[in-house]
Design goal:
seven-stranded mixed beta sheet, 31 strands, binds adenosine-5'-monophosphate-propyl ester
């Protein structure tokens, strides 16, 4: 089997075999020293433009524009331009959960036809350029059709994760005033049929949504009694094939994706067309070193940015083959993923550390029979990957042959920002690496001064800002300014605030995690404030505080401390978890709920979450003198100790 890495000292580097096939080497960092020139060259080479831009980059902070005045169509660049040479090449492989269902393979030509048709369905229902279309679909091929069809006519898609609750979908529909919703009757998960339509129906009630198009995933067709709900397949049969792509300005919005911040309400992160397209294309191409017959499998759901950029758009912009799957990693058997890799000759595999840790825990005897020799590059995303998980991934999945590309980025950044490249290296456990060519990151102190060495500081980005970066928060200039720019503006610095901490080790960047009240639970981004708001809405809860605690599999999990209004009997913990499922979704469900008499507060009434964190981590609580009610800390400590002693909770990683 070909070895793509070699060990030198305690580090791994690309082998000759990797260098021979690498699309870029270390010269790329030199070539990218003038980011404007660099990105302009790639934009010219990599995309078809209807009109060339007048200005490569314009910066009027907090906003900036890439390829100003340029025009293109996103779906044209994913599909039409591939038809001539790659019309019969597989664009998408879909592996359904039921084993008696065959995988679906669509060529570029087939996908193109479906997208054209569905864009005509959207037109038929009055959707025009600039309208927002909500998509609440599981990871099925129709999700790609729906998203690309929006981009063909210039509609802005807003995908909502299918495991999110009806309330979460409703609030996102309302924020964007979406005209149309695309959903499914349901999907398969762990052998069960999950009803999605019920949640969708509830969500659209009394909203701006005029029509709901339903993909019949579980049944053959969908029969609706209301004119509002339409069957996806019947709609497809009712329209023609010809669909002229609408020319879009480079800076026109392409999609909105909601993500959690430090305040209760999720933000609608807006991505533009031209900059995002260039960035998605080249980060995907170079990170995964996509060659002609390669297959990329990014396991993320399309409800997250990773799914947008690396399960769908990145591979298609490169005329490559992408694989998606339905269901969960370990069902019906623990080796499902590894079988899929072998069956479909996956060459680049991209997943989150939580999944790796889950497999690690399950043992690895069964892995011996899976050689997975098609693999070339392994990727990690969404949360820090610890040394054990890195080594296990490297040895058991990559068989010690494949580099691990640990990619740091965010919903806001559209594509990966800090990682090493397969042909460059080095591949070091827990270290993300270098700024992607053409981007620049710094680790600074609280005044914005550059920090050297292993001192932890704030991770910021300096302009020209990466082409994949967000172009605002939907309908909320103030939030955009406050979240990403205001702090550094005060210190007269033009930095994008990542809200992550980092330090430099041997010239490489190591991420230390969020510096704000955002948790990463199994790689999912959860806001403490949003979760607290949801819990506070429960009828017997007077107030609450949520803090994260380390978890061996999920990285971290939320723990809730609640003060009740009066008495609440029975299984409060169970009911509260269900309540969170309904308000946000199971991803935000607290792992533990403690009912306490009081929460530690300062004289001004501020809840001291830091003290709760200290207690959970078995540390000496700091700053007790500032509290009006220091006595409550003892009581909370006793409660927490009880749970740890019962072996229900782990402390500290
Ligand atoms: O804290 C960082 C963490 O995930 C956050 C972004 O989350 P989200 O917007 O959901 O996007 C996830 C997919 C890109 C970051 O602020 N994060 C992401 N990748 C890494 C990471 N932390 C450590 N290492 C990573 N590779």
């Amino acid at each position: 089997m070909v070895k793509y890495v070699v060990k030198k000292g305690d580090r791994y580097w690309p082998s000759k075999a990797m260098k021979d096939i690498a699309l870029v080497d270390k010269k790329i960092y030199k070539e990218s020293q003038d980011p404007r020139k660099f990105w302009a060259k790639l934009a010219r080479r990599g995309l078809v433009w209807n009109k060339k831009w007048d200005k490569v980059y314009e910066e009027k902070l907090p906003y900036f524009k890439w390829f100003k005045g340029g025009e293109l169509n996103f779906s044209y660049n994913c599909l039409d331009r591939n038809l001539f040479k790659k019309g019969n090449k597989t664009a998408l492989i879909f592996v359904p959960e039921p084993i008696d269902e065959k995988p679906i393979k669509w060529t570029y030509h087939e996908l193109y036809q479906k997208v054209c048709k569905f864009s005509n369905v959207l037109r038929k229902h009055g959707i025009v350029k600039g309208d927002i279309v909500s998509i609440y679909l599981p990871l099925i091929p129709e999700a790609l059709v729906a998203m690309l069809a929006c981009t063909r006519i210039g509609a802005i898609h807003s995908v909502v994760f299918s495991a999110f609750s009806s309330d979460a979908l409703k609030s996102r529909i309302q924020d964007g005033k979406a005209k149309l919703l695309i959903t499914a009757d349901g999907y398969y998960r762990r052998g069960e049929k999950v009803d999605l339509l019920k949640k969708a129906k509830k969500a659209v009630y009394r909203t701006s949504v005029k029509k709901v198009i339903v993909v019949p995933r579980l049944r053959k067709s969908f029969r609706s009694l209301s004119f509002k709900f339409k069957d996806f397949n019947k709609e497809m049969d009712s329209v023609g094939l010809m669909s002229e792509p609408v020319s879009m300005k480079s800076e026109d919005p392409l999609f909105i994706l909601y993500t959690s911040g430090t305040t209760g309400k999720p933000k609608g992160v807006v991505h533009d067309t031209g900059g995002y397209a260039v960035y998605a294309k080249y980060t995907c191409l170079w990170n995964f070193n996509l060659l002609e017959n390669d297959v990329l499998w990014c396991t993320a759901d399309i409800g997250w940015i990773t799914g947008h950029t690396y399960a769908f758009y990145g591979p298609l912009l490169n005329g490559s083959t992408t694989l998606i799957y339905e269901g969960s990693p370990d069902f019906p058997k623990i080796d499902r993923w590894w079988k899929i890799i072998e069956k479909h000759n996956v060459s680049a595999f991209y997943t989150a550390p939580t999944a790796i840790r889950m497999f690690m825990k399950a043992g690895d005897k069964y892995l011996k029979k899976h050689r997975m020799k098609s693999l070339k590059v392994l990727g990690s995303v969404g949360e820090p990957i610890d040394k054990d998980a890195w080594n296990w991934y490297f040895k058991k999945i990559g068989k010690g042959r494949c580099p691990i590309i640990d990619t740091w980025w965010q919903t806001e950044t559209g594509g990966t920002l800090i990682n090493v490249l397969p042909g460059v290296g080095p591949f070091v456990p827990t270290v993300a690496g270098k700024s992607f060519p053409g981007t620049k990151h710094l680790v600074v102190d609280d005044k914005g001064k550059i920090k050297k060495g292993k001192d932890i500081g704030f991770l910021v980005q300096e302009g020209p800002f990466a082409p994949g970066m967000l172009h605002g928060v939907y309908n909320d200039h103030k939030k955009y300014l406050d979240t990403y720019w205001r702090y550094w503006k005060k210190h007269k610095k033009k930095y994008y605030d990542s809200s992550d901490g980092a330090f430099i080790t041997n010239g490489l960047i190591r991420i230390t995690g969020r510096t704000d009240d955002v948790m990463k639970v199994a790689g999912h981004r959860i806001s403490t404030a949003e979760l607290e708001d949801a819990i506070n809405e429960y009828k017997t809860v007077n107030e609450c505080a949520v803090v994260p605690i380390a978890d061996k599999i999920k990285g971290e999990v939320p723990v809730a401390f609640v003060v009740l209004k009066g008495r609440d009997i029975g299984n409060l913990e169970g009911r509260l978890k269900k309540h969170v499922d309904n308000k946000i979704g199971p991803t935000a469900r607290p792992s533990f709920v403690y009912v306490v008499k009081d929460l530690p507060k300062t004289r001004s009434g501020k809840i001291m979450r830091r003290i709760l964190k200290n207690v959970l981590n078995n540390e000496e609580p700091k700053g007790l003198m500032t509290l009006v009610n220091p006595d409550c800390v003892g009581e909370i400590t006793e409660l927490v100790k009880g749970k740890v002693n019962k072996g229900k909770m782990v402390r500290k990683r």
